[in-house]
Amino acid sequence: MARAPLLQLSSISLTFGGNPLYDGLDLTVQEGDRVALVGRNGSGKSTLMKVMAGLVEPDQGSRVVPTGTRVGYMEQEPDLSAFATLGDYAASGLAEAERYRIEMVAEGLKFRPDAPVATASGGERRRAALAKLLAESPELMLLDEPTNHLDIQAIGWLEAYLRDTRTAYVLISHDRAFLRHLTQAVLWIDRGEVRRLEKGFEHFEEWRETTWAEEDDARHKLDRKIKAEAKWAVEGISARRKRNMGRVRALQALRAERAGQIRRQGTALMELESGPVSGKRVIEAKGLVKSFGAKTIVKNFDLRVLRGDRVAFVGPNGVGKTTLLKMLTGELAPDAGTVTQGTNLDMAVFDQTRSTLDFSMTLWDGLVNDPEMRVSGRADQVMVRGQPKHVVAYLKDFLFDEQQARAPIGSLSGGERARLLLARIMAKPSNLLVLDEPTNDLDVETLDLLQDILGEYDGTVLLVSHDRDFIDRVATTTIAMEGDGKATVYAGGWTDYQTQKALTEAPPAAEKAAPKKAAEAPKEVVKKAGLTFTEKHRLEALPGIIEKLEREIGKLHELLSDPDLFTREPVKFAKASEMLVEREAALAAAEEEWLTLEDKASS
């Protein structure tokens, strides 16, 4: 007998601002589902997720969750006002016997449970919300941009966690590598309709293009039929008025059908214009040293950036990527060493903090009052790459409508703020782009377009990002910052950096004896020719998974070593014992899988 879905939405209709967001929407989520929820910025992904969570009431339709099924939602802006620390908030939904789970996820997410709420940043609050959801372990998790504010290491940890969990989840993310590695189905929101693909995200773009091609073909056929019927109506209706009124009514119905079709939103008309050609040497850094107190950012760092290079900076949050970027661009002085900038540089900066946006201003005022975009004597035009253009027309190029032009910038979503910032930096010619976390909140289509634009850009790009796929597609050089002042330059993108690092860290051939157990495997595994791409990725990930399981087992053994725990807290003892059995089984399976893959790779 088939089990009931974990969640079922039926005939959902929802209207915002007079416009229908959904009409007659149906969807189900089953046990074990691993679903990507995708769509353009503003298509209603987050709203649909809130409907799924029961936080937004639809105008019509029903939401059904079986009795006893828990649906967990990761809050974007959690209310922590009632809590002293982030840990207090994260543990607030847990029974006392289950609060140890917070410690288990805290290390991987780089989340500090003891951090005071009063001084916590937005990113720390979001990590607390994610830790809370993972620790609660509901039957269905709804994750809205969980990788935002996580560095690459934490993203990797979360990816491994979600890959190993038995919990069903629906996932919104701009990180294509994250979606490819984790999902087995796709929900695509397109013009108020939700389509489902029973394949992972890696098949989404091909499916989307096929769907659009079929839609265009059907529209062309309908247009030809309307044209033929209209010709008949003009030429022959007077002779056959009484007998053919049904055909006239059919023509009217065809026209109504055509008028009712919602044209899909185009891509943003983003464009970068290179300024005057810079000198061949754009930036040269020698012997850079920078510290803040006891924390060393870089020491004895050298770098030469030539015209046309695309340089990506990667590393954990707080390691100093933005600080190094500011030293290279002259915004911040090093403690020692020199930075020499080349000649004829025109720099444009995308700031991850969005500090150049005044949230109290409207989009209109934010553009026309920008000194670099202002057109003298005109309050309705902006200067775009040397030519005046009406402010609304330019905003439409970046997918903003006329109503939004008069809305405050503070009302925009994260993706819309990113597009507005791109509109500002793309309005003027440049030959050096500094992009600090440009991919956060952008939809897949806009990311694809940005990648293409950067590929055609004649200037130089300095890029800070945690998006592995974007780095692979854009970067020609990757600088890995690993802490304690260590910054290493690698050729190529993220995958190239991982491969080169693995090769440099691999032991000599004589030392490559099979480990007695998988936990002794090296942290980085050289990719082997005998494995498929998926198997190579899994082999590289398994040592980290094994290490995580061993840490959790150690904590559980420590907890259960208390001889009075059973009599004092029997529920906690039972939960911990159950968790220990589960983790030990998972460890044995992971070790066996590692040995199997390592044996296959070596054969």
Describe the structure.
With 603 residues, this protein is α/β, with parallel strands linked by helices. The protein folds into four domains: 199 residues, P-loop containing nucleotide triphosphate hydrolases (Rossmann fold, 3-Layer(aba) Sandwich), CATH 3.40.50; 55 residues, no CATH class; 218 residues, 3-Layer(aba) Sandwich (Rossmann fold); 94 residues, Valyl-tRNA synthetase, C-terminal domain (Helix Hairpins), CATH 1.10.287.380. The protein contains 19 helices and 21 strands. A six-stranded mixed β-sheet has the order 5-6-7-3-8-9, sandwiched between helices.
CATH superfamily of the largest domain: P-loop containing nucleotide triphosphate hydrolases
Question: What count of helical segments does DSSP give?
Answer: 19
Task: Tell me the helix content.
Answer: 40-55%
Q: Average the pLDDT over all residues and give the rounded result.
A: 83
Shape: globular
Question: How many distinct domains?
Answer: 4
Instruction: Based on the coordinates given, report the CATH architecture of the largest domain.
Output: 3-Layer(aba) Sandwich
User: Structural class, please?
Assistant: alpha/beta
Q: How would you characterize the largest beta sheet?
A: 6 strands, mixed
Proportion of residues in extended strands: 15-25%
Report Rg.
Answer: 28 Å
